[in-house]
Every structure is written in C-alpha cells, then in structure tokens.
Amino acid sequence: MEKKPLLALAPMDGVTDFAFRSIVKKHGQVDLLWTEFVSVEALCRGAAPKLISQFDYGPLQKPIIAQIFGKTPEYFYLTTLLLAELAFTGVDINMGCPAKTVAQSGSGAALIAQPQLAQEIIKQAKQAAIDWAEGKSLSDCKNVNPKLLRALKEQKEFWQIKKVKRQVLPVSVKTRLGINKNELKTWLPTLLAVKPDLITLHGRTLKQAYGGRADWQALAEAGAMIKKFDPKIKYFANGDVKNYEEALVKAQLTRADGIMIGRASFGNPFVFLPLAKRQKLAKKSNFFALAIEHAKLFEKHNLLRGRDKFFSMRKHLAWYIKEVPGAAKLRAQLVKTNSASEVEEILANYQAKNE
Ligand SMILES: Cc1cc2nc3c(=O)[nH]c(=O)nc-3n(C[C@H](O)[C@H](O)[C@H](O)COP(=O)(O)O)c2cc1C
Fold this sequence. Notes:
Bound molecules: flavin mononucleotide
Number of helices: 14
Number of domains: 2
Number of strands: 8
Distance between the termini: 45 Å
Structural class: alpha/beta
Helix content: 40-55%
CATH architecture of the largest domain: Alpha-Beta Barrel
CATH class of the largest domain: Alpha Beta
C-alpha cells in the first residue's frame, strides 16, 4: 500500500493566523502547519516588536514551520537564528508570492529571476541553522537591531520558551513553476544545488497568480527531478487540491512526500479528513459550532495580545455558512459582527427560526 502523504495547511497571508491554524489542527488533524509570511527586512529594521506576534503558536500547533520573505541574505541569517530560538520546526523561504507589494520589490516569486540571490538566501539560512546547532545565538551577532533582540526576549518570555534543543533547523523553499512560463528545468537545479531540506511547489507561474489551473503534469515532472537528484530532499506539491482523497491521488502522481491545501480549507477544516469522516461531520450545526469556536479563539488570542479588532475574523464566518439556506442574509449579519458573543447570538437566532 502507498504511504499516506503528509497533509499541510498552506500558508495564506491574512487567513492562516493563530486562531485558524488552531481550528485546522484540531478539526482537520493536519500533519503540518505554516505561519503566514513575515518580511525579514521589516523584522530586522525595527518592526519586530510589532510583527513578532505573527510567530505566535501554542504547543498544540507543533509541528509548525515559520515562513519568511525578503531579498536581503544577511536578514535571512538573522531571522533564522531568531526562529530557531523560538523553537520552530523549520524555516520556510517564500519564493512564490506574486503580490505586487512583494514581487515588485524583488522578493517572493521575483527571486525566480534572481537565481544567484535565491541561492545566497538559502545558503545564509542554512548557515544560521548550522551555527545555531553549534551554539550561536542572535545576541552573538554584530549589528543586530536592538528591537529585534528585544522582541525575541519578550516573545520567549511571553510563551515561556525556555530550553530549546540545539539542532539543525530544516530550511525549505516554497515557490512556483516560473515567472512567465514553466522554468523548472533551470529553476529546480538552481534550488537543488544548495540543498534545501524541503521544496514546496505551487503548480502555477508568477504571471498566472491564482488564475487558470495548477499544472500537475509539471508538478509530477518536478517530483521525478527532485527525487532523482536526492531522495532525501522532501517534496510537497500544491495547487487546487480539494480534499483528502484528491491529495492521495496527487501525491502518487507526483511522488510528493506531502500535499499542501490552501483555499479548499476556507470555512472547512474537514477537507483534510477521509470522505467517511467528512460526510459524518458535514452538518450545518457543526459548521455553526466551528464558527463560534473559531470566533472565541480569535477573540482570546486578540485579548492575549491586547488587540480588539474583530475585522479579520469576519471573512471566516462568511465561509463557514456559505452552504446554508439563506446564506446571503446570514452573511450580511455576520460580516458586521464585532465579537464572538454577537456571532453566537446571530447563529442561535437563525437556528431558532429555521429548525
Ligand atoms: C489569501 C491567500 C494568501 C496567501 N498567502 C501566502 C503566503 O503568505 N505564503 C505563501 O507561500 N503562499 C501564500 N499563498 C499561496 C498558497 O499558499 C497556495 O500556494 C495557493 O493558494 C495554492 O494552493 P490552493 O489552490 O490549495 O489554495 C496565499 C494564497 C491565498 C489565496
């Protein structure tokens, strides 16, 4: 029998925050989580105190990989040391984001057009992972912005991160097929030459952004190339996968060690579970319960961090109820909520009227 691939929740900026990851881990029993991405330039140039909460995770979210983006190799070195000290499972470098704010400044998917810089970034992160294992810490580095050091200290205290094992942190890359067309014949060897521990490929180009369909033939060819080069390098494939069964088929097709699912999980953490379980769970009452649990978790995390904005929770609420009769009216109410108790009240009213 084929080995079950690892299933991962794709990193999604503005979506896969602390609360959503907790929900997906608990209800989807996903194997591996990624954080949303964080800019190494912002972290290293003084914004760390503001951004460090992006790296919040609790013991229940492990194993969890921190994703970072940028274009300055030395900042990848420093940030990898930071993430090692925060006891992450791994560090993932984003070389796939097509967003103008990221790619037009030379980061994310734009790095596909900068092979030497991309290699240097991976090398620096890998060197930091080795140096960490051999006893080096962020505070040993020269010219570190004091705000970065302060943020690290406070984050460790906040989450009571004490003794972290000095082991070499895996360094991975998440990227796309190319800039305007499939460039894997040159882009993959560029990456493989510096031996990242894991490569995740989204089967689209930068130009495609999220349009068209992911090219699974290209992802299968990539799997063969990676495994031929070095079977120890892990490979995750990604793009348009809808559920557990499709993930199994796609893993077999591509020889991928793991499949990453993103958008199909919006409002539905059960997509990571086998069909029989999904069918049992696919009841309106379960989605309502999820919406409430998620909203409460979101609020709790906000409180912990001294924030009160409920805004970024609202889209999740709309996703949870998208299949119910009268969804449009219910959505119109939910997207105006400002607290978990309001969500609870609206959903209770709906149920009282509709059952
Ligand atoms: C709203 C949104 C935000 C995203 N943010 C990130 C990100 O921070 N880092 C990243 O590597 N990919 C990001 N992606 C890409 C996803 O990780 C994934 O590669 C893509 O959505 C394709 O997978 P899917 O078809 O399963 O959604 C984002 C995608 C979406 C839709």
